[in-house]
Design brief:
The complex is a heterodimer of chains A (106) and B (396).
Chain A lengths: L1 E4 L13 E4 L4 H11 L4 H4 L10 E5 L2 E2 L15 E6 L11 H9 L1
Parallel strand pairs in A: 1-5
Antiparallel strand pairs in A: 1-2, 3-4, 3-5
Chain B lengths: L16 H6 L1 H4 L5 H10 L1 E5 L5 H11 L3 E5 L24 H12 L4 E5 L8 H5 L4 E4 L4 H14 L3 E7 L2 E7 L7 H4 L12 H4 L5 H18 L8 E6 L4 E6 L21 H5 L18 E2 L1 H9 L4 E5 L3 H4 L7 E3 L17 E5 L4 H12 L5 E4 L2 H8 L8
Parallel strand pairs in B: 1-2, 1-4, 2-3, 4-5, 9-13, 10-11, 10-12, 12-13
Antiparallel strand pairs in B: 5-6, 6-7, 7-8
Classes of the chains: A alpha+beta (106), B alpha/beta (396).
């Protein structure tokens, strides 16, 4: 069974779990199993069109799966997948509540 | 393979006797020597941001003897910065961060030149601000400025020494399009606002930017001296909880809109529009959902005093409630709110609150979509209440 490392910002949606064991012979199948186990992750990883979001990168044993065979990249039983999202954080207390609300209310 | 900067001209640079004494622990290293130290003196670095990441960057670059260091920031030092922004101190609260940082740097090393830019880093001034520097350090805290730093570096052919943090995890890399990928190769687009939790509400371990900022400073010094293997084409992933450092390989994206074969972004753009969020948002210390959705702490107090029946729902976490809460409030942490909507009655009038008004504003649509439309957001949250209504309350 392959494992997927979940970054801190997304652990809210995996009940705090940092590493999830998944089934599947390919990267796509493993991610599908991940979002099956943790449904809330789906909207954070995939766009409305069902494509992996542009700010999310998935690495297989250190290599970006986009540079391998994407979803079709085969997995071994000891493969380690890692999700790396963009993180803006640096130093201060900022946010964008107003814009978030406008976006959701539209 | 080491990569060094071409634009540093150290031939005419000399060290004084005082500087030789100061830098002696560098000079006796065969990898640095007098040659490397004069390169450091001849080099220039612009640090965008003098906060959590910028603090260790600026301190170590100053101590190392980087000859000319620029600082860009337009914030003032606040008490809640000092848990992690170690270049500032209690005595500089209320003063511009760039001035506070400069004074500390010059105290450490009076043989360097520190130029301060007490202004926002924007599309209008970015090219001019970065032009005189060899290396740009990204010590920013928001997506628009990160894309701006990246784009200006690519357009000017400069290395962008990147660091980013969230809670217990950090990332670091060197984006230098002439030798490897840029930030857009890794992240072509920013996340939509609100989709990924921000540091503002997620918090950050105070020492984390110390680790990541120190890695950034290390990379800058390696590039200047021409030492070792730079973090180009690699993303370092640091997890403080597990105390693990991992790395993934990054490749240049041939279709990158900025540094790819056929770039479509050839000049700086409107990054606020690109990211759907402001470069700098001071409102968040006073979180707002927009005028039609907000209620001020003064108005809420008046309503309570008049005996109006309002249910005040605090959406913070239990551990925040334990720090301080309003007696009129009831606690429903935001994570529990979807499952506990049935406890809310659409005939009642509600006010949602949190620490600053940011999280509670995010929860408003949940209520309105469930038919609970008589709902307001407490602008500024419990911080505003403490500031304006009850000065006895602690502010966190």
């Amino acid at each position: 069974m392959a494992t997927i490392r979940i970054p801190t910002p997304l652990r809210t949606y995996t009940s705090g779990e940092a590493e999830i064991t998944v089934s599947g012979d390919t990267v796509g199948a493993a991610l599908q199993d991940l979002t099956r186990q943790h449904g809330q992750l789906h909207q954070h990883l995939y766009s409305e069109k069902g494509e992996l979001r542009a700010f999310v990168n998935v690495f297989l044993d250190g290599d970006d799966v986009r540079h391998l065979n994407g979803d079709d990249t085969p997995l071994q039983s000891d493969s380690r997948l890692r999700i790396v999202p963009s993180v803006a954080g640096g130093f201060s207390d900022r946010g964008s509540a107003r814009r978030t609300l406008e976006r959701r209310m539209c | 393979m080491s990569i060094s900067l071409e634009g540093i001209h150290a031939d005419d640079v000399e060290l004084s006797n005082e500087e030789i004494t100061r830098y002696s622990r560098h000079l006796i290293m065969p990898e640095v020597t007098l040659v490397g130290q004069t390169k450091l003196k001849a080099a220039s670095v612009l640090c965008v941001g003098t906060g959590g990441l910028g603090s260790p960057v600026a301190l170590y670059l100053a101590a190392a003897g980087v000859g000319r260091i620029g600082l860009v920031d337009h914030d003032m030092v606040e008490a809640n910065n000092l848990q992690r922004q170690i270049i500032h101190g209690t005595s500089t609260i209320g003063t511009p961060k760039v001035e506070s940082a400069r004074d500390r740097m010059i105290d450490i090393n009076p043989y360097i030149d520190v130029t301060v830019h007490n202004e926002l880093f924007t599309s209008e001034n970015a090219l001019k601000l970065t032009e005189p520097y060899d290396i740009i350090i990204d010590g920013t805290d928001n997506f628009p400025t990160r894309y701006l730093v990246n784009d200006v570096c690519v357009l000017q052919g400069k290395p962008n020494v990147y660091g980013s943090i969230f809670r217990f995890e950090g990332q670091a890399s060197v984006f230098w399009a002439q030798h490897g990928p840029c930030y857009r190769c890794l992240f072509p687009e920013p996340p939509p606002p609100g989709l990924v939790p921000s540091c503002a509400e997620g918090g950050v371990l105070g020492i984390l930017p110390g680790t990541i900022g120190t890695i950034q400073a290390t990379e800058a010094i390696k590039l200047i001296v021409g030492l070792g293997k730079p973090l180009i084409g690699r993303l370092l992933l640091y997890d403080a909880l597990e105390m693990s450092i991992d790395e993934v390989q990054l490749r240049k994206n041939p279709d990158c809109v900025l540094c790819g074969a056929k770039p479509t972004v050839t000049k700086l753009i409107d990054y606020e529009q690109f990211c759907g969020m402001p470069l700098h948002d001071h409102d968040t210390e006073d979180g707002t959902a927009g005028e039609e959705w907000d209620i001020t702490v003064t108005d809420l107090k008046s309503k309570f005093d008049a005996g109006e029946k309002i249910r005040l729902v605090d959406v913070r976490e239990v551990f925040e409630w334990d720090i301080v809460h309003l007696p009129e409030a009831e606690l429903i942490p935001m994570g529990d709110l979807p499952a506990r909507l049935s406890e809310l009655d659409s005939t009642h009038e509600y006010v949602l609150m949190c620490r600053t008004g940011v999280r509670s504003a995010q929860m408003l649509p949940l209520l309105t979509s469930a038919g609970i439309t008589r709902v307001k957001n407490l602008k500024g949250g419990i911080r505003a209440w403490a500031s304006e209504i009850d000065p006895e309350m602690p502010i966190y």
